[in-house]
Write a structure and sequence with these properties.
The chain has 131 residues and is an alpha+beta fold. It contains three helices and four strands. It has a four-stranded antiparallel β-sheet.
């Protein structure tokens, strides 16, 4: 009787452990999937176009280049043409100054002031081919 309870308890534990391992594995795999962060359009002569957006120029560039790398797979994306466009409320220099003054004032007053930047302030448009 005691051995049957022991076996039943171990069977439940092993089933629970197995389901936990499978669940963690599925979460890990879904986290590793790399979906394109922005749409990629194929053009003539095996060229592609994509646009990355971000609150900074570097973030927009990284997003566009990540999409290009994902599209090319094992091959290397070669940028043929690129263009950066700023779409913020204020011009880029004024926006940076306002944010710096706001962060200083926030540090002195102990209050966080609202951030003027948005996630789509910068657009980085590239044309590329895979080589």
């Amino acid at each position: 009787m005691l051995s049957q309870l022991y076996l039943a308890k171990n069977k439940v534990l092993s089933t629970t452990a197995m389901l936990s391992v499978l669940g963690i594995g599925m979460l890990g795999l879904s986290a590793c999937q790399s979906a394109p962060s922005s749409p990629v359009m194929q053009r003539a002569n095996s060229t592609f176009e994509t646009t990355g957006v971000g609150s900074t120029k570097v973030m927009a560039q990284n997003q566009a280049l990540a999409s290009a790398k994902n599209t090319c797979g094992r091959r290397q994306p070669i940028v043929i043409k690129d263009e950066v466009q700023y779409n913020g409320v204020l011009d880029a220099r004024t926006g940076r100054m306002v944010e710096q003054v706001g962060s200083i004032a926030g540090a002195v007053l102990g209050k966080a002031l609202p951030n003027m930047s948005r996630e789509d302030d910068y657009e980085y448009m590239i044309s590329f081919r895979c080589q």
